[in-house]
TrEMBL record:
Pfam families the UniProt entry points to: PEP_mutase (PF13714)
GO MF annotation list: lyase activity
Keywords, sorted A to Z: Lyase
PANTHER family to which the protein is assigned, alphabetical: CARBOXYPHOSPHONOENOLPYRUVATE PHOSPHONOMUTASE-LIKE PROTEIN (AFU_ORTHOLOGUE AFUA_5G07230) (PTHR42905:SF16), PHOSPHOENOLPYRUVATE CARBOXYLASE (PTHR42905)
Taxonomy of the source species: Bacteria, Bacillati, Actinomycetota, Actinomycetes, Pseudonocardiales
Protein name: 2-Methylisocitrate lyase, PEP mutase family
InterPro entries in UniProt: ICL/PEPM (IPR039556), Pyrv/PenolPyrv_kinase-like_dom (IPR015813), Pyrv_kinase-like_dom_sf (IPR040442)
Amino acid sequence: MSAGALRALHVPGRPLVLPNAWDADSARLVVEAGFPVVATSSAAVAAALGHPDGEGAPVDDMLAAAARIAGAVTAAVTVDAESGYGLAPADLAGRLLGIGAAGCNYEDTDHVGGGLRPIGEQAARITELRKAAGDDLVLNARVDSFLGAPDEAAVFDDAVARGRAYLEAGADCVYPILVRSPELLGEFVRQVGGPVNAAALPGGPGLSALAELGVARISLGTGLWRHVRGVLQDVLGGIAKGRLPY
């Protein structure tokens, strides 16, 4: 699937659903289940490689894992590239295109300096990434304003300003990750004026409810990996007590 075809799947109210994978095997299962696109989860990939999230894994290892996933499926693959792993936007674009990625997540957290990058700085990075990639990458610009925010309403205006700026800079979709209030998410969709990615969170709105809020894309993020990992923990605990799961 081309980036253009992936872009066309971002339909407000009829969102693209992405059960994020972490290796070639889980990616194949996503495709076998009928999903047209495979997204990676940086946290899950990093954990599978023995590293923490937040750009704790070497860039070469993360991109090699993404390349194995892209090589294992015929579906489009969109890569969680975190904040770019210190690569210049043009270099990141080249490496993503080189492994066959059709899209990427690109976040505004500065993992080296800490905190969020200024809006103008992140918008400029998105513009550079878009210029280097042309139309061959679907850019999902993550808005991290709500991460760790004790009062979501207090950071809402900042999130909207970031979303608007990132879309204007060339992003195809914006991702206000971890906003938990359905009301604020719906208002974000209304105010930002472009395709919005939402996270499917435990205890939050379900897939149909998120669609009704007008989002164009839904990510499970680490949700699928955490669920599978929890099942494995339970099974291992049973084996330790002498109970085989089969």
